[in-house]
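This section describes the prediction task in plain terms. A model, or a person checking by hand, is given the sequence of a single protein chain and must write out its three-dimensional structure as a string of tokens. No templates, partner chains or ligands are provided. The sample shown here is typical of the held-out split.
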Amino acid sequence: MSHRLRLACAALLLLSFYAGVGLSVLAWAALIVMVFVSTGAEGATTFPAPGFLFFAGTAPLVYALLDAVRRSLFLTGTQEAQGVATSPREAAALHALVDELTRRFGIREPVHIRLTRQACAEMSDEDTRYLGLADGNHVLSVGLPLLAALPRDQVRMILAHECAHLSLRHHRVRAFTVRLELSLTVARDSLQRFGGANGLVATYTAFPRALTGAYIRLFRWIVQPVRRRQELEADAAAAAACGAPLLAEALVGQAMTERLWGHFQQVFLEAAPAGVLPTDPFKGFGAALSNPGIRDRLPALRTEVVTVSAVDTEFGSSHPGLGERIRRLLGSATLAPQSSFRPDPALLPGLPSGDIARLLPLYASTRKATLPWKQWLARWADQHDAHLTTSLLDAVRSLSPRGRRITLRHVLLMLDSGERMTLARAVEARLSKTGHDSEPLDLLARALLVLVRSRLGEHTVRRSLLRDLVTDAVRRPAHTSRLSLYLASLGVDEDEPLDSDAQLTYTMRTMSRKLPEKGGELVRTLRRATLTILVVGLTAGGCYWNMRPAPKQQHTVVVPDRRSGTSTDSPTLPGPGFVAPSYPSYPSYPSDPLADPFAPYRDPRPVITVLPQPAPAITSLLDPAAR
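The expected answer:
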């Protein structure tokens, strides 16, 4: 299929999705009207309760489809995904770099810069009209992790790739493909969440989920090849303007930064000690990349990101694999090795705490204090090794006589008595399940350092000096006295018992519970909404049922049966044109209703009576006229 034909099909796919949602909503509304009409019908004899169950179960699904159409028409999203807008005064170096690239690519339209928390960059067209056919505001979203990790040349090449998209007018195509993807994403997620949160709603999700699934498969087949081709076209344009080797190196650096940023969030931010977070996590991320432990792992990570295939989602891969992009850029040339990250501090603007909270949900969900990066990192190191102290005290108790009070002085005396290696082995045995692969004496030194720091309280010490004293006390015999003198000068009581677990407890900030809370709130909200719709629908339907006109009663005419002497009931339908039935007439049937009906059937011969006549005296008494 040609490139232009795919674009035409993508536009038709978007319009057909809107039309399909519109027809589905109209059909749903027609069914609801039919339920209410049948409820108030004159001849209705049964209350249509299943219709109101259908109304309550499908209302959330109709809302999900309409919400998907609304959000795609107006490109509305969460504030978290939108990022933070920045002005030339707040990020002068970054704006100057973008202005230089727009002049190089011949772009006359102004480009607005927005800072995001993602380790990527993206050019988009916002506030467009006519489904993206008319121009809008060109917005360049730049991830702060990229500015904090990559050198200036690599940042420039990534931004050049995005400006190439704008110069090639790819944003026109992306305007309606993004709308289609947003519609399908919102509809799919809403149907899954609503169906999983309510059993009544789940019974009606088959048709809308089948409709959404069909559109997703068509999206993969039609749209994603167009996007992959556009990425290769932008790579070629950026390479022609700024150089292919630099672009290849920038693409590799971006992929590595994305991996390292996800690891940094899990290890440092989501497990922050005692709920305290660094003031500027992005500068902290750049500082963490200079750690020797991370630099040693960069070559292996570099090889991994180049050989891995493209990310394939439910909608398919929108970008070609990194290896394929590098081969198209360099051909038979090899990729130059990179030793470490050397970011340009001028490109990373300092954000207020409120803007950081908007970018990182972790900062918005906590009200804990923040510390500068170096102070926070020192506290994080102490809290990260807090479990070593528990293992150290357990090892000391196992090697000490039963009932011996455990103090800091007792631990130092064990080191002086030549039990340092035995104690180190005991600590290592208790930490073997957690995956520690450090040398035993190093583990013992780290555990003792955390134990000593827990005794300092509010005292301010030189961390490097304390670390050197603890290391000498562990590795060199007879050097524990120097550590004891230093602690005594700070007023630390070495004879204070260490058996209390409360004194050695370090609070580690666990991962945010925001998502489970949102899931539980969705279940409760959807349950209340469904129940409310059901109750309101049944109430309205019941009132409409009671107000319907009552059916007319049937009339029963009793017809005497002349032949058998009995009567039969003959039901007739009422109505203005009702005519009484006619019956066969008999010749001697009397017309007088008071006449004897059996007179025609009596014997006409006179009846002879033999009763005696009454006496005249009695007759005179009975006849008043005779008195």
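For orientation: DSSP finds 24 helices and eight strands in the chain.
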